[in-house]
């Protein structure tokens, strides 16, 4: 265990950030997975803006790379377009 007050505080902060990031990363992955699993085009079109917003937030806070967010949005949009 750390001996310095600053190191103890840093450990607390990094654990809090880790849990926060882990929660949002998992939420984002689940949202993308659920959107890909949809078969109804109307439902997918309605859900897409929420997922898009979530991806943009993750890229803004650098939880994921901005290019990864762009690639995911592009692939999801094309998948929705291909739905019958």
What does this structure look like?
- The protein is mostly helical.
- It is 83% helix and 0% strand.
- Helix 1 runs antiparallel to helix 2 and helix 2 runs antiparallel to helix 3.
- The N and C termini lie far apart (58 Å).
**What's the story with the biggest beta sheet?**
none
Rounded Rg: 17 Å
Label the overall shape: elongated
Q: Determine the strand fraction and express it as a percent band.
A: under 5%
The percentage helix is over 70%
Q: Give the N-to-C terminal Cα separation.
A: 58 Å
Number of strands: 0
Strand-and-helix sequence, N→C? Answer: HHH
As residue ranges, the low-confidence spans are none
Q: What is the tally of helical segments?
A: 3
The computed structural class is: mainly alpha
Tell me, rounded to a whole number, the average pLDDT.
Answer: 95
């Amino acid at each position: 265990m750390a001996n310095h007050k600053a190191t103890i505080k840093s450990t607390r902060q990094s654990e809090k950030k880790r849990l926060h990031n882990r929660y949002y990363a998992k939420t984002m992955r689940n949202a993308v997975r659920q959107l890909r699993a949809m078969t109804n085009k109307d439902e997918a079109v309605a859900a897409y803006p929420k997922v898009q917003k979530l991806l943009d937030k993750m890229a803004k806070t650098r939880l994921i790379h901005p290019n990864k967010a762009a690639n995911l949005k592009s692939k999801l949009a094309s998948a929705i377009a291909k739905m019958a």
